[in-house]
Design brief:
4 strands; Uridine Diphospho-n-acetylenolpyruvylglucosamine Reductase, domain 3; transmembrane; Membrane protein; 62% helix; alpha+beta; elongated; transmembrane helix; 205 residues; membrane
Length: 205
């Protein structure tokens, strides 16, 4: 019962986040339209460059933060969180007129975020996957999954994974992985010693 309630609440929260994202999207669309209208009216009536640019950049960067926030709500992953923080800090650096120490802290923060994304995230932290029959031809799997798995002749996913694991002297078992450039193959299911399903995990970046 407890597990059921936890799953139900989690699923409800997920859909609430999607609804909130849709509401925010509509609000950002309306605000973007108003921003464009203000730009046209300002150009027609004459503008004071410094004041106008400051106000325009502030509103535009706020909208950009909102867009990144929607992406984070729709697809929660380490990279989307980093992107939201990067845009938010960039907005502060560009729009706000802080002290030299404020700028220094902002620049250091951006550098740390870039370092975290480059060195602490593995290539498959952000990924999507597809599970296929192990008897599927690799060439067909490449088309369906939109990947580039190098194969020999009419090799199946089972043949390819088995060959690679043997080359790397790894045990052929459920969960065993073969890593390639921007893609990994994981044994998802077996019947005895026969691989029946293979999971294709694609790196997003």
């Amino acid at each position: 019962m407890r597990k059921f309630l936890q799953d139900s609440l989690t699923e409800t929260a997920y859909y609430l986040e999607l609804i909130l994202s849709a509401i925010l999207g509509l609000a950002l669309l309306a605000l973007s339209t108003l921003l464009f209208a203000d730009l046209l009216s300002s150009l027609a009536g004459g503008i004071q460059a410094d004041t106008f640019i400051q106000n325009f950049l502030s509103r535009a960067m706020t909208l950009a933060v909102g867009v990144e926030f929607i992406k984070m709500l729709c697809k929660q992953s380490p990279s989307t969180v980093i992107e939201v923080l990067l845009v938010a800090i960039a907005r502060q650096l560009i729009v706000e007129h802080g002290s030299s120490s404020d700028y220094l802290i902002g620049i250091i923060s951006v550098a740390i975020l870039f370092a975290v994304r480059k060195y602490l995230f593995t290539q498959f932290d952000d990924s999507n996957n597809i599970i296929m029959r192990a008897s599927q031809k690799v060439k067909v799997a490449n088309i369906i999954a939109r990947v580039k798995i190098p194969s020999e002749g009419s090799e199946t996913l089972r043949d390819f994974v088995t060959r690679k694991l043997n080359e790397e002297e790894k045990t052929i078992a459920i969960g065993a992985c073969v890593y390639l450039k921007n893609v990994a193959l994981r044994i998802d299911n077996m019947h005895g010693e026969l691989i029946t399903r293979v999971e294709i995990i694609k790196s997003i970046y």
